[in-house]
Structures are given as C-alpha cells and as structure tokens.
Amino acid sequence: MTALDMTEMQIRRYARHIVLAEIGGVGQSRLIAAKVLVLGAGGLGAPLLQYLAAAGIGTLGVVDDDTVDLSNLQRQIIHRTADIGMPKVVSAERALADINPEVTVHAHKERLTVTNAERLIAGYDIVADGSDNFATRYLLNDVCFRLRKPLVAAAILRFDGQISTYKAWQGPAHPCLRCIFPVAPSEDAVPSCAQAGVLGALAGTLGALQATEVVKEILGVGRSLSGRLLTYDALDGSFEELAVEKRPDCPTCGDRGGHP
Q1: Are 140 and 131 in contact (CB under 8 A)?
Q2: CA-to-CA distance for 126 and 144, rounded, in angstroms?
Q3: Which of 74, 75, 19, 95 is nearest to 203 (CA)?
C-alpha cells in the first residue's frame, strides 16, 4: 500500500505523517500494516495506546487483567470516571475506537504468564511494555528475545522514568534487559507506585516516548534506543543517556544463554 492506495479519509487523517520525508505514504502504509502488543492499559499504556491508535497502527493488542479503579484516573488517561469497575482492556478498546475506528483492537483480559506469553506475543510484530511488576518485565524480555520481537520497555516511579529498546538477537551492540539488570529484585525490595506514589504527568511523558520509539522501530528511521538507557528526572527537568553493553554471561542473550 502507498498513499495512492489509501482512501481519501486515510490521506486526510494521516496527512501530517505523509508530508514527513521520513514517513511518507510508504511509511504510513507500514504503520497501518503493523501489529503491536501493549502490556498494560495503565499509566504508561494509556498514552502509549492512544498515540499508537492515532498514528494508524493497524492492529493493537492490549494485555491487562485489572479493572478500572478511582485511584487510576490521576494518570491512566485512557479511562473515564464512568469506567470505574470495568475491565481496563474493555475501557481502552472503547477509547481507541473513538480515536481511530480503523484500528483493530484485540483485548486480552489476562495476565501474562509463562504458559501464555509465547501465544500472545507470537502474533505481533513488536511489543511495548507498560507493566508494573518485575516478573512480567523479565518474562517479556526472555520471550521477545526467543521470538525475535523488538521490545520497547519503560518504567516510572515517583518523579523518575526510564526507557530502552531491546533486540538482543541482532548482535553484540544490542543488549537485553538482563544485560543491564541481571537479576530481578524481589517485589518488596522496590516500592510500587501505590506505596511510593507517581506523578501522573510523568506517565504521559514516558508513554509518549514509548509510542515514538515503537513508530521508529516499525519505520526503521532514526537512531534506535537499543544499547542505550534513557532516564528522565521530572523534578530536575533533565534526561540522561547511559550506554549499555551486552554481557557475555547474560543468562538470556549471552554466550551461555539462550539462542533465538
């Protein structure tokens, strides 16, 4: 598909993308054909999903087993007060249909586990992690490596956020999550957002960054965050970039680890 193959409505909807030399009609067609799986319809997933839908990602999968709570609304802007008590994937699906009815949304009301991870991830081109627990993050890292799926992962707490892209099967310049953080801390070692708090707008900042990196990976434009960890301090208003390297002893992608 090119701009010539798009409908008049699509050309009008995506006009500001199409005029970008880095995207154009061919790039927009890639976005329309893409399938992206988003883990979590919460603080990060809310802006991430909305921007991906607006960008014209043709198929969006949403994995979340939670329901909307009043305390979510301070940052999870995809949900409304009227959605309290509703499954988050259902609320998100409704919101995305309002933004862009051309997008196909698959609502997976389940928690990612060892038994269902490969089934869920296999059907998508790229994965974006907006989960809120270490077990899910590390499981995603390992399965995405095995299935050769790019993983754009972000995390937030209090006034701080971080984001990176992982595609370790592409070689020495591309570490995975375990190369940076070899062992997941225990769940009680790091406070949750419920315990320590989180600035609502921070979720928007990191979620929007995730959407940008997902689009870049689909289009193959710009400089990937693979091999770099970008951190953001909202109180200081500053970003810091850390170069990260593949570890030969990484249990997932190292010399003695798994092989995709």
Answers
A1: yes
A2: 9
A3: 75
Catalytic one of 144, 176, 179, 193 = 193
**Which residues, in sequence order, are bridge partners of residue 49?**
none
Closest CA to 144 of 161, 129, 156: 129
Q: What angle do CA 160, 126, 14 make, to 5 degrees?
A: 90
The span from the CA of 140 to the CA of 144, in Å, is 6
253 is annotated as an active-site residue: no
pLDDT in tens, the chain (260 residues): 555 689 999 999 999 999 999 999 999 999 999 999 999 999 999 999 999 999 999 999 999 999 999 999 999 999 999 999 999 999 999 999 999 999 999 999 999 999 999 999 999 999 999 998 999 999 999 999 999 999 999 999 999 999 999 999 999 999 999 999 998 877 676 777 778 889 999 999 999 999 999 999 999 999 999 999 999 999 999 999 999 999 999 999 987 655 55
What does DSSP assign to residue 198?
A: B
Quickly list DSSP for 81-114.
GGGTTSBHHHHHHHHHHHH-TTSEEEEE-S---T
Please tell me the total number of residues recorded for the chain in this structure.
260
